[in-house]
Structures are given as C-alpha cells and as structure tokens.
Amino acid sequence: MAIRFHDTYTRRLEEFRPLDPAGREVKMYTCGPTLHDFAHIGNMRTFVFEDLLQRHLEARGFHVHRVMNLTDVDDKTILKSRRAGLALGAFTAVYRDAFFADLDALRIKRADAFPAATAPEYIARMIAMIGTLMERGHAYQADDHSVYFRIHTFPAYGKLAHLNLDELRPSGRVSADEYEKENVADFALWKAWDKDDGDVGWDSPWGRGRPGWHIECSAMSTALLGNQLDIHCGGVDNIFPHHEAEIAQTESCTGQKFVRYWIHGAHLMVDGQKMSKSAGNFYTLRDLLDKGYTGREVRFALLRVNYGLPLNFTLPGLNDARASLQRIDEWIARLTEHAAPADKPQPHPASGGDRFECELDEDLNISAALGVLFEAIRETNRELDGGQLSPGQARSVLDWWNRINRILALEPDAESLPAEVQSLLDARAEARAAKQWQRSDELRDRVAELGWEVKDTKDGQKTSRRAKLANV
Ligand code: AMP
Ligand code: ZN
Predict the structure, then answer these.
(1) Residue 288 belongs to a domain
(2) E runs forming strands in 381-472
C-alpha cells in the first residue's frame, strides 16, 4: 500500500516517493528549537510527531537521514543572554543540554546531526549563499546596512502559505521612510550589528552582523543533506514566513526544487486556549515531570492525536494517557506470564498482517493505528479470561507488540524497586509466612505510601507503580 502525506504546498494527500532512485534513502529536515528557554510541550508535540514519522518510515524499510538544527543565535537568545550576563554560547548551552534531556525523556530518536547556527562552517555557508543572492539580484543592502531578500524576484513567494504576493506590498498610506526596505515583506538575510548585539557578530562583505533566522536553516539543511530534501517538517507557525523564506532563498541559490513534501504539525493548545506564560497554562516537560508524570506518559499524550489536528492538552487528558498505558502494561504482563520465552509462536489473528502500519501509511493516522492496538488488547484479554489463548499465540502477539512498539516507543519504564520498598516487601513476606495478616496489611499500606502497589499471586508478591493521579 502506498504511503501518503498531506503536503502543505499542494494542500493534497500526496503519495510518498523519495528522490532516491532506489526508493530507500530519505532526507528529512526538521526545524529545531530556539535555545532561549526550556522547550514547552507545544514544541515537544511537534518533535514527537516528527519522531513518529521517522520511525514509521523506518518500519516501512526506508533509511532516514534526519537533521534538526539548533537556533543558537537570534534576537531572543542575544537579548536574554545579555540580561543573564552570560556569553551567548554559555547561555544557549544550558537550554541545549535541557533540550537533549527532554528528547531522551520523551524517547525521541536522536537525529543524525544537530547543527548549531553559530558553527563557523555554517556561518561561512550562510555568507556564501547571501553572496550568491546578491550577485543574482535577489538581495540588496539597505540603508540600515542589513541585507534583505527581494521577494518580488521570486514569483513563487507565498505559494507554500497560499498568500497573495500583492497583499504583501506596502499600501500607499505607509510612509516610505518608515521602512529601510524596498518592500515591507522583504526579509532579512543578514542583520547589521547594532549596540544591543554586544559582542555577538561576524564579519561579512556587508559589514559586521549576524544571519537572519531563515538563512540559517537553508544553509544547514543543504550543507548536510544536499540541495534537495524529501521531507521538511515543523509546526504550522513555521509555514510563514520561515519556510516560505527558506524556499525563496534556497531555490534562488540552487535553481532546484528544494523540498518534495512539506509536512506541518498542528498546534498544541492548553485547556482550549493558546498556551502562554501569562495565562498560567504554560508547561515545559519538567513542569509535568515535577507533577509526577513520566516522560513516557507525556509522549503518549502528545503522540496519540493525529498530527494534522490541534491537540487540546489538559491534565485530565494526561491522566487518561496514563490509564491507557496501564492497560497496555497489564496486557503485556498477562501475555508474558502466559507465554514462556521458549514457546514456539503460533499464529493469532491480531498478530497477522500489518494493519497497524497500514493505518499509519495514510497520513500517519495514529488514532486509527492505536485503535488496532486496543482492539487487539480487548480481544486477547477476553481470550485469556476464557482460557482460549495458547501460550504460543501469546508469544506471537507479544512479538507483534514488540514490532509495532519500534514505532510507538511505549514500552514500560524499566524501574528498579527502591531499597526501602524492597525491605518492606521482605518484611511482609516474613509476616505472611508467619500468618500475621494484620502486619502484612500494614506493610502493604506503607509500600503504597511510597507509591507502589503489591499484589499477592501464586508466585509471591508482585509490585507495580501506583497510579498517582494529580489533583484535577
Ligand atoms: P521554536 O523553538 O519556537 O523555534 O519552535 C520549535 C518548534 O516547535 C517549531 O517547529 C515550531 O513550529 C513548533 N511549535 C511552536 N509552538 C508550538 C505549539 N504551540 N504547538 C506545536 N508546535 C509548536
Ligand atoms: Zn527552520
């Protein structure tokens, strides 16, 4: 079955065929974080969707080369680093490290490269690209010494965002000297240094300054992946002007079509509103970890809504994600108990075929794919209850789970039992052996206070993490 994605450029579902004549290699570029603060869960939703996309393509046999840039110089990073009294590099390093910790907590696969905009080789490439644009008449230096892209030299400007170029022209009422630029919509390629930039700046043929944000991505993507990409992703806020500008600059330099498929993730909203610090509904991953949620739970809450739909994030929704994961965990535990590792797999309808992957083939329809998983859970649980599932079938259902979990990355957290819980459990086992039931119950309560649940089975005490629901 063909893989199809909704392409922002054509506004249609397009069959995915990479540039590679062998149809195997995929070049994927994803706009990364601006390192001026901790990434919020909206940013993380976009990164989780991109991870799902990469993992699904890999499950379908593609070899994905993925690049994610780090924006470590822009207005915000400069301003905030100066306020903090730190050199730009020392300031952004704090958020770069936090970003990588967040990726790990959310089980997001690392890209092949995370180029940083301030690396000398990329600054040199940005300057070279701007030079080419100047030579070809696509760029000009304005009176403010900054260099701008002349959008009317690129007729396709506005096509990605479906904007009418004429609407971007300044109206007659705009006084010309309010703008240094020829056209209000021309965007900066090189920003001339000013005193607020402090010691941040690079020398260029147009004087000291720094690159504009858009040229950073054009330079880093083409440096690492070549002039043509298969997939370029980001959140919908990146469509205009960022990605529109990337197309104009890159294609004006290379003369080749830059990107085959533009795939954008819809935004995350909080309690139906735009997430903002002032509304008090602004969450970073660490805010949620501090509330007692795990990275796995947040991953699932961000992953389970189709990328093209806005995701309304709420704490009850996150509790719901937790409950769904507990169902998965209990199911895996039951299957594992039923199937000895040595059991030879026997076919089972749930584990045959690739229905899960087929749902994802259609524009990454994760909610339908999860429907396939939960249907299998219901069915096999019923069969286990009725003694109708053979150990060999349990084995093949587990093998199926392990296969689809390479895409989901939702395996239970490997959590070791804290020493304190272990010693309470040992004491409880002794109490039970001595038939001291009241003491056994007291010890169970103390274990529960530490966040663990004990179940007595024929093989002894079994522990699992207690559901610690946040107050909502
Ligand atoms: P930034 O750090 O602002 O450059 O953003 C990093 C990524 O997060 C970009 O791909 C943005 O499009 C995306 N993004 C920003 N805000 C949201 C949001 N509320 N929901 C989903 N993605 C977002
Ligand atoms: Zn970008």
Answers:
(1) no
(2) 452-457, 460-465
